[in-house]
Every structure is written in C-alpha cells, then in structure tokens.
Amino acid sequence: MADMKQAFVTGYPIKHSRSPLIHNYWLRHYGLEGSYTAIENSPESFAGFLKSFAEQGLSGGNVTIPHKETAFAFCEKRDAAAVAIGAVNTLWLDENKVVNGGNTDAYGFAANLDAQMPGWDTDLTSEKTALVLGAGGASRAVIYALLTRGFSRITLINRTVERAQQLAEHFNNGNLKAKIEACGWDKAQDFVSSADLIVNTTSLGMSGHGEIQSFPLDLNVAKSGALATDIVYIPLETAFLAQARQAGLRCVDGLGMLLHQAVPGFEHWFGVRPEVTEKLRQIILDDILKV
Ligand code: ATR
After folding, report:
1. Which of 46, 133, 143, 233 could cysteine-pair with 41, CB 3.0–4.6 Å?
2. Does residue 20 have a cis peptide bond before it, meaning omega lies within 30 degrees of 0?
3. Domain count for the chain
4. CATH number, domain containing residue 133
C-alpha cells in the first residue's frame, strides 16, 4: 500500500520499549492503515538512520535513550520545547520533507497531571513552588513544563550538585525568567514544607536500579494539599509515591506521562489526535506486570 504511513521508535537497546504497544493500539482503535515498529540503532548506526529514514519510506518516529541529543543536533527545524530542553524525542517530516524535531516529554508530564489532577497548576493562591528531585534528561523536560505552567519558584536537588547547577543555569539564563535554586540532597528536606508540587525524576526506587528501603525525605511535613508525582512507572507505586501517599499527599504515578507524550507524534504521522484512555493504560499496565 503506497500511502500507508510507517513510523518507528529507535533507541539502544529498544526491545523493552512500550511505544509500539501504545501506537499499534491506537492504529487498531481508530481503524487506520499504518505501522509503528521498533528499530534498534547503535550510536554508530544512528546518524546514518537519521539521514535515510525518509528515503526508506518512513514518516517519522520516536527517538529514545541514548539518541535524543544526536537527533536534536541533526534536525533542521525544532519546536520550542526541544530547543529549551536540548533533546528531541519525536521526528516528523513537514510538507517539504524536511525533518522536524520536537520534544513531547514536557507536554506528557503536564498533560498527565492535567488529566489526573485537574487544577494542579491553577488552584494555587500564592507563588507556585516546586521541588524537583534529580537533574538528568527527564528533569529538564519536567522543569520546562513547570516553567511554562507558571511555577516561579523551583528548587532542584541532585546527588551531583554541579549537574543541578548547570541545569539551573541553563534555564536561569534562558528566556523563561526562571529562578531555579540548585542544591544537594543535604538541603532537600528544608524545601519540602513550602512545595506545592514534589517531583521525583531520579532512578531511586526504579526496578532494576537497586532496591531502596525508604526514600530519603520526610514527606509528613509537606503542605496540606501538596501533590507528589514520579516519572518512574516501574514499579507503578515507587517508594517515593508510597511515602507520599502515607503522608497524605495527592499522588500521580508516572505511567500517564509515557502515554501522553505519545499523543503529538501519533497525530503528526497518522493525522488523528489519539485519546489516552483507561483501557490503553490497562493494556500497558498488564504488559508491565507480565515481566
Ligand atoms: P534520566 O534521563 O532518566 O533523567 P539520568 O540522566 O541517568 O536519567 O539521571 C538519573 C537521575 O537519577 C540523576 O539525577 C541521578 O543523579 P546524578 O546526576 O547525581 O547521577 C539520579 N540518581 C540515580 N541514582 C541515584 C542515587 N542512588 N541517589 C541519588 N540520585 C540518584
């Protein structure tokens, strides 16, 4: 079928990606002709793949670890989120077949909170205050999302303090008027009681990254009504979220971010804006629980 749209997810390794499950569910659900497949590319083969995917008849796709920065450098056109974050996770071709790069992680983060906790960014009376734990790639996307939703006070905590400082400087010197403070874990507890939102972006408590007995923060001192969210979704209830729940915080798990970040890409390639539903969430959850 000449006109059948074909999209991909590429990374290294890629076999654990759940993106094919998400996009193929939507293709079936909306009765669309199309395909979405996982294509593994090593760091050596990725540049060649970027140059040739359009010639191979592919419409675009998702890019994941470790290729997001290479994809960013390659793209001729980038959306505002990709520029601010410095990484591209979604590629599509425009009407002139020029490769465009976007970053939908920040969108996915905010859209998940919009869906699970409506008003999370508007129902606050005073200055919007966030505590962000971790300063890796995911943290960049979270901070960009928070800045675009008007969080003016953000504290960034990281084990490697220099990494947090670099990330804070990146946004403080950008055009979003950020005033991010960077600290080590020894200061983290001081910021718990003033935070409206606490986000864990570290791999602490993630399956396969070493078990932790407890998350190194006392969340009992958090504000009443404070919100906790994790970007890790395996396990769904991380040690951070379990402690937050026990301390009475409102909690949102990270699975929704994975589902929502997929929406803009699907729309680019297949022309339909898909819906994140409870049924889709259950399909991915069942797949996670199978492992
Ligand atoms: P991602 O792109 O998913 O954010 P990453 O770039 O590897 O992944 O970042 C992982 C984050 O988890 C970092 O903030 C890391 O802290 P460092 O920058 O100091 O490495 C954090 N992290 C991982 N293991 C940790 C641990 N045992 N204690 C505290 N922080 C940890």
Report:
1. 46
2. no
3. 2
4. 3.40.50.720
Catalytic residue among 5, 51, 68, 187: 68
Task: Note the pLDDT of residue 187.
Answer: 98
pLDDT score recorded for residue 177: 80
68 is catalytic: yes
My answer on whether 32 and 124 are in the same domain is: no
Do 100 and 202 lie in a common domain? Answer: no
Tell me: do 150 and 244 sit in the same domain.
Answer: yes
Whether residue 159 has its Cβ less than 6 Å from ligand 1: yes
Residues 78 and 187 in one domain: no
Ligand 1 lined by 60 (C-beta under 6 Å)? no
What residue ranges of the chain have pLDDT lower than 50? Answer: 2
Q: Look at the pTM and tell me if it is higher than 0.85.
A: yes
Residue 124 belongs to domain spanning: 107-255
